[in-house]
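Q: Structure tokens for this one, please.
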Amino acid sequence: MLFELDADQRLWQDTVRTVTAKECSPALIRSIVDSGADSAPLWQVYVDLGWTELVAPESAVELAIVLEELGRVTDPTPYLATLTQFAPLATGSVDPRQTGTAVFEGVTARRDGAGWRLDGTAAHVLDGDRAERYAVVTGVGVFLVDAAKVRATRSPAFDPVLHLAEVDFSGVRLDAGERRDADIAGALHTARTAMALTMVGACQRVLDMVLEHARVRKQFGAPIGSFQAVQHKAADMHVAIERARALSYFAAVTLAEHDSRARLASAMAKAAAGECQSLVFRSGLQLFGGMGFTWENDLQFALKRAAAGELMLGGADEHRALIAEEYRAADF
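A: Here is the predicted structure, written as tokens:
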């Protein structure tokens, strides 16, 4: 199992970074938040570049590279939900041009004549208000549902770029053949790893902005980056990000290689990313001073994307508990 990106992967990383810097600029994010600009053209860019075709487990590391970079730029599209929540549950039924998301809880299914009936309302569904298809997890299997059959309402979110929705599946009727067996546990491992990578990218963006600010901001006639207290905080942020990044890419490698440690690795990645965002959030705001709290400062978007990731798919405390359980059950 390799732990360094090879030459092709580094080239891929540079390519993705170049594209996102050009196509998903801070100005675009600001226009989406302030004036409701449409993110659909950016989604089409991803489709045209083939980024929406990274659905095979063997491409997990390449997908991880994309996810980190999209976290860095606060991606406003449904890419995260489509590629890492919907696709793992809809194996063989993924159209790279369509958006999708997953519903992991809140919906039940029962027999209805020759078919099935879904009932329930799912809260906080990532991109639930703009997904074209849903992969709905129930106690009897996974169902693929078209958006036209449900009622979705966008919910307020801490991250103003993020789309969360309440989706009502009450009375949705489906044919018998629309139920499928899927690796739900494996899909959750993928979703957690992906969320961790997104958080890592957002935290890296915060650190990048802090370092740039520390170089130009002066106090007592010297850049604040020359002060030891500032350096220590920046170093702590860097160490936390590198730890979370290493664990997240390890989790991606376990997914790519169908390694049995994927459950543990994804929990470790999500826990580390949660702890990382907590430290980065505090230190990032502090090192920017009062400027960090202003609406005009783009720091907020990266901070909010990282913090929102902690609230989805279980927080650091939950995943630390899962890790402890896993080790207690291990036969050493």
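A few notes: Residues 184-329 form a domain with the Butyryl-CoA Dehydrogenase, subunit A; domain 3 fold (CATH 1.20.140.10). The first strand starts at residue 100 and ends at 103.
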